[in-house]
């Protein structure tokens, strides 16, 4: 077993004297590797190094088009190593191989997409008065901190790191303690190709090294993906140093199905939206809002699909993998065990024992018909393969229910009526609304972020570069 060291100041940090954290394979319950339990001293060293790298002639001499060329080269490197990276991602998270491979391609697309923007971040000239030349210049924001969650580690690392490097910043990535493998793989590549300190990879617990990083006065910007409580803590910590944050904090996203919807088209998308990555997705379609006139028909189709979903490890070519760790596994089972008596579990709702993988964390994909949209399991993010169903009577009630949570990340609207589609989409409080579909493969070009407690700011698309620049106005008085 090769232990994973941190990359700080151009060197691999992790001696036998360090404290180490076990990384567990959720599919088997077995030890994969160990990571360094990073601390405040490690955090400070990384930030100080990043600040030196930001000002170094070596990094400043990288022209924008050269940064773009490097990002293109990174995309090619990821694709050349796609099989190895997909195996690591599956090992780390337990997700099916096909999903892991899709994540690797999405990561390559992020580097490819932002490579094309590296030399196209333009300023403006502003007409003020004769003999005054006024221009805006887009400067890098500085030392950027990227706190990556465990559910899509390579994708989420790629989407913010690529934008930050494209705009000339330096990067510190803090991996989840559960899923460090693919980021460590990329760290080795950056270590070989970039000046010392431009990219650094730290590991450990969020409450320890994560907190030390978010509160460090040398950090200029923070991108965080994770839970609402942790996001609030990150934001409070950043506020002490007046540091901007980009937060993506999850959701309780609805699929809204009207009576004229094409159910043969909707059913596979609804199923995939909640069981992909075992429901451990911020944008999971965890609520189903359905017109009461077709509810029985749609529910019957979904229950039949859920019954035939194969649960197990990647090695078994399963469609639904394990829950990430024992703590989350027990939390989901506890929620399922305390469902309101008025609610009805239509399928699933229990743990699954997979032969040969008895120590893995498996849960049967579950559909619950809620008695009330205010039921706690309808309102709270469960982060597992659990779908809540609520019926509605008309368009206005559908919109009201769609908006009746603290979140607003993604929504799906299913109807053949273009008027209904536009009317509903314009009134749903959500960062993304899909009509007769749900999600997009990678969705690199689409801005992604949420309303309400789903977060602040937007990632993906050309808009994400705004997170990593600051605008300087220069006014030149011309005199002869």
The helix content is: 25-40%
The largest pleated sheet is described as: 7 strands, mixed
The backbone outline, from C-alpha atoms, is: globular
CATH uppermost class of the largest domain: Alpha Beta
The SS-based structural class is: alpha/beta
Radius of gyration: 23 Å
- Domain count, please report it: 2
CATH architecture tag of the largest domain: 3-Layer(aba) Sandwich
Strand order of the biggest β-sheet:
13-14-15-12-11-17-18
Mean pLDDT: 96
Strand content: 15-25%
CATH superfamily of the largest domain, by name, is Aldehyde Dehydrogenase, Chain A, domain 1
Keywords: Oxidoreductase
Organism: Psychrobacillus soli
Protein name: Aldehyde dehydrogenase family protein
Family: Belongs to the aldehyde dehydrogenase family.
Summarize the structure.
It is built from 15 helices and 21 strands. With 480 residues, the chain is α/β, with parallel strands linked by helices. It has two domains: 6-249 and 456-474, Aldehyde Dehydrogenase, Chain A, domain 1 (3-Layer(aba) Sandwich), CATH 3.40.605; 254-441, Aldehyde Dehydrogenase, Chain A, domain 2 (3-Layer(aba) Sandwich).
């Amino acid at each position: 077993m090769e232990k994973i060291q941190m990359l700080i100041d151009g060197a691999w940090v992790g001696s036998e004297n360090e404290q180490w954290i076990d990384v567990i394979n959720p599919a088997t319950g077995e030890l994969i590797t160990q990571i360094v339990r990073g601390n405040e001293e490690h955090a400070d060293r990384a930030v100080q190094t990043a600040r030196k790298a930001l000002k170094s002639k070596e990094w400043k001499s990288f022209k924008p088009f050269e940064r773009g060329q490097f990002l293109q080269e990174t995309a090619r490197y990821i694709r050349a190593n796609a099989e190895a990276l997909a195996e690591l991602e599956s090992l780390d998270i337990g997700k099916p191989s096909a999903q892991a491979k899709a994540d690797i391609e999405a990561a390559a697309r992020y580097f490819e997409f932002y490579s094309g923007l590296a030399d196209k971040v333009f300023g403006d000239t502003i007409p003020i008065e004769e003999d005054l030349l006024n221009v805006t210049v887009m400067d890098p924001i500085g030392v950027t901190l990227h706190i990556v969650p465990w559910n899509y580690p390579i994708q989420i690392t790629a989407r913010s790191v690529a934008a930050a490097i494209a705009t000339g910043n330096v990067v510190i990535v803090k991996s989840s303690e559960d899923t460090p493998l693919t980021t460590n793989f990329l760290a080795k590549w950056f270590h070989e190709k970039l000046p010392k300190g431009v990219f650094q990879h730290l590991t450990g617990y969020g409450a320890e090294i994560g907190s030390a990083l978010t509160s460090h006065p040398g950090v200029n910007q923070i991108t965080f993906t994770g839970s609402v409580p942790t996001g609030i803590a990150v934001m409070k910590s950043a506020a002490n140093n007046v540091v901007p944050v980009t937060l993506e904090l999850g959701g309780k996203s609805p699929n809204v199905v009207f009576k004229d919807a094409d159910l043969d088209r909707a059913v596979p998308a609804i199923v995939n939206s909640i069981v992909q990555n075992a429901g451990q997705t911020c944008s999971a379609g965890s609520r189903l809002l359905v017109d009461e006139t077709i509810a029985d028909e749609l529910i019957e189709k979904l229950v039949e699909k859920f019954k035939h979903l194969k649960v197990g490890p990647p090695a078994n070519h399963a469609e639904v993998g394990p829950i990430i760790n024992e703590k989350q596994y027990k939390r989901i089972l506890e929620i399922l065990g305390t469902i309101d008596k008025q609610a009805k579990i239509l399928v699933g709702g229990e743990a699954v024992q997979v032969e040969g993988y008895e120590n893995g964390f498996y849960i049967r994909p579950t559909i619950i018909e809620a008695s009330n949209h205010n039921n706690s399991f309808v309102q709270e993010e469960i982060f597992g393969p659990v779908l809540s169903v609520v019926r509605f009577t008309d368009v206005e009630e559908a919109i009201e229910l769609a908006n009746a949570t603290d979140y607003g990340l993604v929504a799906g609207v299913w109807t053949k009526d273009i008027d209904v589609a536009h009317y509903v989409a314009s009134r749903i409080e959500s960062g993304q609304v899909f009509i007769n579909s749900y999600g997009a493969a990678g969705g690199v070009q689409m801005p992604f972020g949420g309303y309400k407690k789903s977060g602040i700011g937007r990632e993906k698309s050309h808009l994400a570069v705004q997170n990593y620049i600051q605008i300087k106005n220069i006014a030149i008085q011309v005199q002869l």
